[in-house]
Amino acid sequence: MKNYRYRWGLAVLLLLVTGFRLWYIQQIPISADEAYFWQWSRHLSLCYYDQPPMIAYFIFLFTHLGRSNLLFIRLLAPLFMAATSLVMHFLARDISGKEEIGFACASLVLITPVFALGALLALVEAPLTFFWILTLYFVYQAVCRNRHSCWYAAGASLGLGMLTKYLILLLVPSIFLFLLSSPKNRQHFKSKKLWLSLLIALFIFSPVIFWNAKHHWVNFIFNFTQRHSSASLSLHPQYFGEFLAGQAGIISPLLFILLLYAIIIGGEQGMKERNNKLLFLFFGSATTLFLFAVYSLFDRPSPHWPANAYLSGFILLFLVLHQIKWKKAFSVLLVVATFFSLSFTVILHLLPLRPNILDRFIREKNAEESNEFISFLSNWPKTLGEKIGEIKEEMEKKNKTFILCRGFALAGYLSFYTPKQEETYCLFQETLQGQAYRYWQNLNAHKGEDALYMETGEKSAYLERLRNAFITIKKEPLFIISKDGKIIKKISIYRAYNFQGSEFISD
């Protein structure tokens, strides 16, 4: 009866939290990255310049089941995080043998800031986290419960994760180190099922390899070299301090300290006692954290990159809790840590709904202009999209007028917020991120047509380059978006006539 109580409790909690998230994701504007991924879903491919393609496929699926609006674009995030919590429950229950630990670990996934925020946005993190925990679940079944056929499911899950984000590859050294940790586990290296699972993962991932081979390996080069071009061989100890601070921020400080303690103690006990469960969880957490800790000595990793390492750490928390001498004190600290983690998550959810609260505490360099976060929450792209729709209606050849934008962010925003969600084209993208437009847009299909070009700022830095491609260009009055007496954005808009072809634009 007690077991059913925890199962029903988790079911009710998942329904309540997911229901709230389905409402909440419709309250905040679309972000630049989300609009960019939505553009991917309108131009499906085997891979993209920036990332593997899975996020585009899921957005395509949900927007075609529903509509291209905030709810269906973001629907994947709350659903995948709910599924992650469910798999976490099963894994923690199987490892500990206790339903209450399964319930507690699943609840931590729901309330920890980094995972809670990942459940709100149409980014790669939610599906990545799901495939991460699913792969661990099947590996545990294969190794620790002798269900060897689960290696095949683990390979499939790993392959799907590789189609989502390459960070899941960090699971491979984690799993291999775990297998090397005991003579019994090393027997799996002789099993064809382990190696077939890797072949399954590679087969699922093969479309990405095929696409890269056709496109000069640009995706691999970007993700494995160019993305980390700021790294150097010289040590930067301050980056390591920033890394630790970032981890404390995404988890909450006290919970982060307890997790580190649990990982260290769990690893020590696992090696001393040859405890397969503790070793499985230790390597599932420590390997990724160690690799990023080393990386942080040379470059700044994004704080959320190692986040999935804490999934195994959550289970270790409760296993260690039942084994240490100061169990009561640890329990109190864990309750306090969970409370502060939940409180931080609640605050982070409230701020976008009440941005004026945050605005009071931010000292502006220019009292007449708003900070970037407040600007984002004002949803200025929607106002701009409506304005562009009006100007296009005024164009003499409105049905033969296309939209040009400086940069991938503006192009994504305008495509989403123009009245008919029109096709937009990206020019002059000078950062490495956002280059995917190059692989699908065909500007020469619009030769002889007119265009609307825009970029943020009071004047265009690329006007002379643009003039070469049009017979005539006329500037609109500077479009200023304001709210509560503060300037949100200044947009330069140009009417361009008779496009001559992309070869005249030195992009």
From TrEMBL:
Pfam (any one): PMT_2
Name of the protein described by the UniProt record: Glycosyltransferase RgtA/B/C/D-like domain-containing protein
Domain Glycosyltransferase RgtA/B/C/D-like: 50-211
Keywords: Cell membrane, Glycosyltransferase, Membrane, Transferase, Transmembrane, Transmembrane helix
Subcellular location: Cell membrane
A GO BP entry: lipopolysaccharide biosynthetic process
Regions crossing the membrane: 6-25, 71-91, 103-124, 163-182, 194-213, 243-266, 278-298, 304-322, 329-351
Species, as recorded: bacterium (Candidatus Ratteibacteria) CG15_BIG_FIL_POST_REV_8_21_14_020_41_12
Keyword Membrane found: yes
Statement: the UniProt record of this protein carries the keyword Thylakoid: no
GO CC term (a single one): plasma membrane
GO MF annotations in UniProt: pentosyltransferase activity
Topology in the lipid bilayer: Multi-pass membrane protein
